[in-house]
Amino acid sequence: EIVLTQSPDFQSVTPKEKVTITCRASQSIGSTLHWYQQKPNQSPKLLIKYASQSISGVPSRFTGSGSGTDFTLTINGLEAEDAATYYCHQGSSIPHAFGGGTKVEI
Amino acid sequence: QVQLVESGGGVVQPGRSLRLSCAASGFTFNNSGMHWVRQAPGKGLEWVALITYDGSIKYYADSVKGRFTISRDNSKNTLYLEMNSLRLEDTAVYYCAVGKYYFDFWGQGTLVTVSS
Predict the structure, then answer these.
(1) pLDDT digits (tens, 9 = 90+) for B63-113
(2) How far apart are CA B82 and CA B39, in angstroms?
(3) Which partner for A23 in A36, A58, A62, A88 could form a disulfide, CB atoms 3.0-4.6 Å apart?
(4) E strand or H helix at B6
């Protein structure tokens, strides 16, 4: 079973700041790591798939990188609307797994 | 556009059963893998179950294996989750989501509260 460890758990930032969230897998998962954004009282939304592939409609300030066991979600030029909890997810093996989440407060 | 609408949540006593539904539209349901994902109050996301496009293969999280059953009716574009022997720790918002290796779209969720 693959375990995903996200850090930090919480980050308080100011607008226009750069935010970096990391996700570490307990074993290599290639590039099968995906990122989601969940705003308060909303369902999650896909932000990045396969570690670095962009999703139509998602602002370009959201980028992903990494492979193997170490992955990063970067938000360049944070905006107020980016206040949310961010989750990484691996779907390469059963059971699927999520990271514990990173709450970004502005 | 893609729509996933969950229903069937509510308050139920421990040990009882509940059946959730997820009505899908806006995409080719009978060609799509489907999942249930849950989120306990104030907690993170937990994957629950997966069913392949034709219903032939199903996978479950250990926490629900033997108690929950995922199924689908492609003629009705509907996904189901039959939940038996419910426990206090099953209390959560249950989301259906479409995708195989990642979740393209999510429903708005339905709240299941297990309480005596």
Answers:
(1) 999 999 999 999 999 999 999 999 999 999 999 999 989 999 999 999 999
(2) 17
(3) A88
(4) strand B3-7
Question: Which two three-digit tokens encode residue A11?
Answer: 């980050």
* Closest C-alpha among A22, A20, A28 to residue A6: A22
A27 secondary structure, DSSP code: S
Three-state DSSP at B77 gives coil
Report the residue from B45, B59, B101 with minimal CB separation from A44: B45
Determine whether the interchain pair A87/B45 forms a contact, defined as Cβ–Cβ distance below 8 Å: yes
- The CA distances from residue B111 to A59, B5, B27, B39, in Å, are 30, 13, 25, 9
Tens-digit pLDDT profile for residues A39-64: 999 999 999 999 999 999 999 999 99
Q: Is A36 on the interface with B (CB under 8 A)?
A: yes
- CB-CB contact of A102 with A10 (8 Å): yes
